[in-house]
Amino acid sequence: MTPAHFAFSSTFLLGLAGLAFHRTHLLSALLCLEGMMLSLFIALSLWTLQLNSTNFSAAPMLLLAFSACEASAGLALLVATSRTHGTDRLQSLNLLQC
Q1: How many domains does the chain divide into?
Q2: E.C. number, please (predicted)?
Q3: pLDDT tens across the length of the chain (98 residues)
């Protein structure tokens, strides 16, 4: 495993661990998701550069577009929950109460 692959794999796993263990605020969960998507984007971009093929050149841009859509939906949910509940703490959200 090259050092670049190790760096991107460890970045992704650190984002996943942060998402799994530090679930107190919605904003921290969104930041962990963005870190995971950023590491996937950079890894996919380097993979397409190493292949020297134009067949996979659209894949990083497609991933970046989906990442932007995910970020905008997450921020919209963050604003909606902070307006209705007054906080972004995940413990204050109850799925049984509408």
Answers
A1: 1
A2: 7.1.1.2
A3: 788 889 989 999 999 999 899 878 888 999 999 999 999 999 998 888 888 877 888 888 999 999 999 999 999 999 998 898 888 887 777 766 65
Q: Which amino acid, one-letter code, is at 40?
A: L
Residue numbers of the domain that contains 33: 26-84
In this structure, is residue 10 part of a structural domain?
no
Q: What is the pTM of this model?
A: 0.83
Longest dimension (CA), the chain: 53
Domain CATH code at residue 40: 1.10.287.3510
Please give the Cα distance from 62 to 47 (Å, whole number): 15
Torsions phi, psi of 96, nearest 5?
Answer: -80, -15
